């Protein structure tokens, strides 16, 4: 079953509070059926220039509004999203492929994220205060921001940029991934009657729109989520105009499982964290290091659990965990990784397979049994439902192996002995580290990567600060006294 939307073509990009249609249109594909979805706009460079002009104009007023006024509008937007949550959930499953429960969760989290952001006010700090002078550290908005969004969590990751940018007094132009433009346009539509024109605009476009944004002299900051490769291009492009940027990039998270765990209690969560969203999460457990004393038992239990509880299918089918991979490019990449199972001589504890019986991009989960540390499946981010289990015996050695890649997004340690777990956790080089969990996130907790997994953070007060410049304000009080 697929969701039905009775529309052939979306009315336009959201520019200065209005729909602006484009001459050219394009569409994405429902990854579960291979069918074309409705047409969406393709922004031209001229449309981007217009949007930037409106954003600069709107900034003059919006940057002077109080935090409370901005928060009031963000809360109204959150209410509007909540009122449309069912439609958005269906649209998300239709364009992204994720199971409907997960799509509804993403929309629900987004509402919660906006509501929490609306409580995170940045206040002046007083750095020095005496009879002669007061020195404040104030935070001022940067200007016009460009938000570049990936296809795996287009709603939460998109609005996780928009909320903080607007609340700190910036204006913003959002560019969805060409693979998933539908919900992001809808979110812009819901915002139309709420924010003043030009404050928040959405441009759907082709592959050239992102580079046009990073190069644009009228955009002051880029907030980007996507692959490491693209992140490097974004940074190089921003350097030409010295734009500020925040980069949230790829990860290859290690999960370290100690020998004292109760396997039946941690295995379901670890398995789900490997295969959730078909493995297409930056912070999935992508390398699972299991202590040699429990390795065989853990591996066999994981295979059994996956066979019995991790169902593959279309996002609207009940009980599905692994929906289709999101797009053809990713499907080919993951299939190539599967083809390496035999070619590279890896042992598959669970031999996943691509389904040939459907036009959708379906791949069943695979578990690789203790491949070498330098194998592709360990070193590369697969971004699909395939995960290696790796044996370890020595604590220092497993920490070195976990830290041994250029990525550093998330990592977890699983152990009954909390002192030991925390000792290991504190030595892991990653932006988020969990003990006895994986992939916990919250709107008031900063989120970002070490090493090539990113630059800067999003969310929480630290994430809000990234949308500001600091001004050190010196006030001498007695000069004319
Ligand atoms: P991607 O890098 O291909 O694309 C991301 C966005 O950048 C898209 O909107 C795309 O159109 C745009 N883009 C492409 N080329 C560009 C360029 N030269 N200049 C400017 N913009 C450009 O990434 P993706 O395939 O959409 O997403 C998957 C990747 O994102 C994975 O590596 C995943 O780990 C990572 N990711 C990271 C986080 C995080 O928070 N750290 C979260 C989700 C996904």
Automatic annotation (TrEMBL):
Belongs to the aldehyde dehydrogenase family. Keywords: Oxidoreductase. Pfam families: Aldedh (PF00171). Residues 23-472 form the Aldehyde dehydrogenase domain. InterPro entries: Ald_DH/histidinol_DH, Ald_DH_C, Ald_DH_CS_CYS, Ald_DH_CS_GLU, Ald_DH_N, Aldehyde_DH_dom, LUC3-like. One of its GO terms (molecular function) is oxidoreductase activity, acting on the aldehyde or oxo group of donors, NAD or NADP as acceptor. The active site is at residue 248. The keyword Transport does not apply. It comes from Favolaschia claudopus. This is Aldehyde dehydrogenase-like protein.
């Amino acid at each position: 079953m697929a969701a039905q939307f009775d529309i052939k073509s979306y009315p336009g990009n959201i520019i200065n509070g209005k729909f602006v249609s484009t001459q050219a249109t394009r569409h994405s594909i429902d990854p579960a059926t291979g069918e074309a979805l409705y047409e969406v706009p393709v922004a031209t460079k001229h449309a981007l220039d217009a949007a930037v002009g409106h954003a600069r104009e709107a900034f003059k007023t919006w940057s002077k509004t109080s935090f409370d006024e901005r928060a009031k509008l963000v809360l109204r937007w959150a209410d509007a999203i909540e009122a449309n949550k069912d439609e958005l959930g269906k649209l998300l499953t239709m364009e992204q492929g994720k199971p409907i429960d997960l799509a509804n969760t993403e929309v629900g989290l987004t509402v919660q994220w906006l509501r929490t952001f609306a409580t995170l006010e940045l206040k002046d700090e007083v750095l020095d205060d005496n009879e002669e002078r007061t020195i404040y550290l104030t935070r001022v908005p940067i200007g016009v921001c460009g938000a570049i969004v990936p296809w795996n969590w287009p709603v939460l990751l998109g609005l996780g940029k928009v909320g903080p940018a607007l609340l700190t007094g910036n204006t913003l132009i959002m560019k969805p991934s060409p693979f998933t433009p539908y919900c992001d346009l809808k979110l812009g539509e819901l915002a139309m009657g709420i924010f003043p024109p030009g404050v928040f605009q959405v441009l759907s476009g082709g592959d050239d729109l992102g580079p046009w944004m990073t190069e644009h002299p009228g955009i002051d900051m880029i907030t980007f989520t996507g692959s490491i490769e693209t992140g490097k291009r974004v940074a190089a492009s921003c350097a030409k105009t010295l734009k500020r940027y925040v980069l949230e990039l790829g990860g290859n998270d290690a999960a370290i499982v100690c020998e004292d765990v109760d396997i039946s209690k941690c295995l379901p969560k670890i398995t789900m964290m490997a295969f959730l969203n078909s493995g297409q999460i930056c912070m999935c457990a992508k390398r699972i290091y299991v202590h040699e004393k429990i390795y065989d038992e853990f591996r066999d239990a994981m295979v059994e659990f996956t066979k019995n509880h991790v169902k593959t299918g279309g996002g609207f089918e009940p009980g599905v965990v692994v929906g289709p991979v999101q797009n053809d490019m990713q499907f080919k990449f993951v299939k190539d990784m599967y083809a390496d199972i035999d070619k590279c001589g890896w042992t598959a504890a669970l031999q996943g397979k691509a389904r040939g019986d459907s036009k959708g991009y379906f791949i069943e989960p695979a578990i690789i049994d203790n491949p070498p540390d330098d194998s592709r499946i360990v070193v590369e981010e697969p971004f699909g439902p395939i995960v290696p289990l790796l044996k370890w015996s020595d604590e220092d050695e497993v920490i070195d192996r976990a830290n041994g890649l250029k990525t550093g997004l998330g990592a977890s340690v699983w152990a009954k002995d909390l002192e030991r777990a925390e000792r290991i956790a504190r030595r892991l080089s990653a932006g988020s580290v969990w003990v006895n969990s994986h992939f916990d996130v919250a709107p008031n907790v900063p989120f970002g990567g070490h090493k090539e997994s990113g630059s800067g953070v999003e969310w929480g007060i630290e994430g809000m600060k990234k949308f500001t410049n600091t001004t050190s304000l010196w006030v001498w009080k007695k000069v004319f006294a």
